[in-house]
Design a protein that fits this description.
By secondary structure, the protein is an alpha+beta fold. It has seven helices and 15 strands.
Length: 342
């Protein structure tokens, strides 16, 4: 029988359609149609991108030259622009402001076909180090309330170029999805004096049926109320509120956990398109500030990574109701991923 499950973080219901019971092989690999030919992200084509913001280099060459391992450039066609003031105004019942923000591209490797799942732990660690550095830098801009780090892998996940890359967008408002997570975490803490995410992690460790991999530092699991088949939640086992504050010692451990889960997804699902998101705390120093709004955030929020394979499509029922239909139970998805031989 189908089952309704409630997500205590997003506070939404999900239908786990167990009667459909789709296995990994039941999801056909979607043909990717990303453009081929010239790639502006490849090493040697540095002049074809906007001037770089920063880079990790193999040698002493200067900026915008070959010899880099990870490179950050502004997006050539940004969703938001860094120049200007917000100039927020009311228009009757509506509000508007200037499209001020930041939109950057992290080119993860000089190798055109080296996807993150196949990269070395050392290379993934360099990418994570750049994530942290850019997050720290953008949070210094008090116009920005939130910074999202995200990756679209594959055309059906929204990628427009096949060269492995991540995007960062800083916004002058806190996105609705994050606001929901923040509110749930805060209310749980005020009610129970505990972190909601820590409670979920502890419960999942005790159950074990939805855990894909775990060690002393990170846990990877399929959420109880997964909206999408083979959806992944990755988080530090010990409480940590901000990805910007992850220590140097934890970066290689996170790189190992991330490589393992990406490798398992790739082999289990035949290299699916996916979206990768880092959810961390908003910019608590941004202006204007609400009095006491972030008073408990270091105790109530827990940064995490969400990884969503694009195996199904959102259709009319989902848009019309807010319900998601997941045809693979999270327990089954975790089992398939655990059994992958790497």
């Amino acid at each position: 029988m189908p089952e309704l499950r409630h997500d205590p973080i997003q506070r939404r219901w999900v239908i786990i359609a167990t009667e459909r019971g789709r296995r990994p092989d039941d999801y056909p690999r979607q043909e990717e149609s990303l453009p081929g030919g010239f790639c502006p992200f490849c090493e040697g084509n540095e002049s074809k991108t906007p001037p770089e913001i920063t880079a990790i280099r193999r040698d002493s060459t200067g900026p915008n030259q070959p010899g880099w391992d990870v490179r950050v450039v502004p997006n050539k066609y940004p969703a938001l622009r860094i120049e200007g003031n917000l100039d927020r105004k009311g228009l009757g019942l509506f509000d508007r402001m200037n499209g001020v923000g930041a939109h950057e591209i992290i080119i993860e490797t000089p190798q055109h076909d080296l996807n993150l799942a196949d990269a070395s732990v050392e290379q993934i660690q360099k990418v994570l180090r750049i994530y942290r550095a850019r997050l720290q830098d953008l949070l210094r801009d008090l116009r920005f309330k939130y910074v999202l780090i995200f990756k679209n892998h594959g055309a059906s996940a929204g990628a427009s170029l096949s060269h492995p890359h991540t995007q960062i967008i800083a916004t002058p408002v806190t996105p609705l999805t994050l606001a929901s997570e923040l509110n749930s975490a805060k209310e749980h803490y005020l009610d129970k004096d505990r972190c909601l995410y820590c409670d979920i992690i502890q419960q999942e460790l005790e159950s074990g049926e939805r855990i894909v991999v775990s060690d002393d530092h990170f846990i990877v699991l399929t959420p109880f109320a997964s909206c999408f088949p083979f959806e992944i939640f990755l988080a530090p086992r010990n409480h940590s509120h901000s990805f910007a504050e992850i220590s140097d010692d934890m970066l290689p451990r996170l790189a190992m956990a991330l490589k393992e889960v990406l490798s398992r997804l790739k082999k289990c699902l035949n290299d699916p398109a996916y979206n990768f998101l880092i959810h961390t705390i908003p910019n608590t120093k941004s202006r204007p500030r609400r009095a006491n709004y972030w008073e408990t955030i270091e105790l109530d929020f827990h940064w995490h990574i969400e990884l969503i394979p694009r195996l199904t499509r959102i259709a009319g029922f989902e848009w019309g109701t807010g319900f998601y239909i997941n045809p693979t139970a999270p327990e089954e998805a975790a089992k398939y991923l655990r059994e992958v031989e790497l």
